[in-house]
Amino acid sequence: MRIHTGERPFVCGVCEKAFAQKGSLLKHERIHSGERPWTCSYCGKSFADKGYFVKHSRLHTGENVHTCDLCGKFFAQRCHLVRHSKVHGGERTTDLPSANMTRKNLV
Questions:
Q1: pLDDT for the residue 12
Q2: Could you say which of 1, 24, 68, 74 has the lowest number of CB atoms within 10 Å?
Q3: pTM above 0.70?
């Protein structure tokens, strides 16, 4: 219900940024503490955010990897592939599995 009321009772003790949910505050506090509790067992890179850790891990496991059909470079997130496609310029066709369709001219 806080979403609708705008209430933000959880306040960061360092920068005073306020949050509607306690979990969001705890996640934010890692910025100040430098805590990075999730570490990749493949390459040793550590993450403060579990979601970023999971997406990064996909690069090593090959799960849900998005590959550029022009140069073969691969990305854990589709949005990074779309951003990368701009380096090639011009028209291109890419299969976007998450959208379950083919789109032209993403650039």
A1: 97
A2: 1
A3: no
> Is residue 10 in a domain?
yes
pLDDT surpasses 50 at 13: yes
Instruction: Please give the tally of structural domains in the chain.
Output: 2
Cα 2 from Cα 4, distance rounded (Å):
5
Strands 74-75 and 93-96, bridge-based pairing: unpaired
Closest CA relative to residue 77, chosen from 90, 87, 68:
68
For residue 44, what are its two tokens? 């040793």
pLDDT tens-digit profile of 56-104?
898 888 787 888 999 999 888 888 899 999 998 854 545 444 443 333 3
Looking at residue 35, what is its pLDDT?
Answer: 95
Give the C-alpha separation, 50 to 80, whole Å. 18
Q: Which of 32, 13, 34, 12 has its CA nearest to residue 24?
A: 12
The answer to the question of residue 76 being in a domain is: yes
Q: How far apart are CA 47 and CA 91, in angstroms?
A: 36
Query: Range of 92's domain?
Result: 66-104
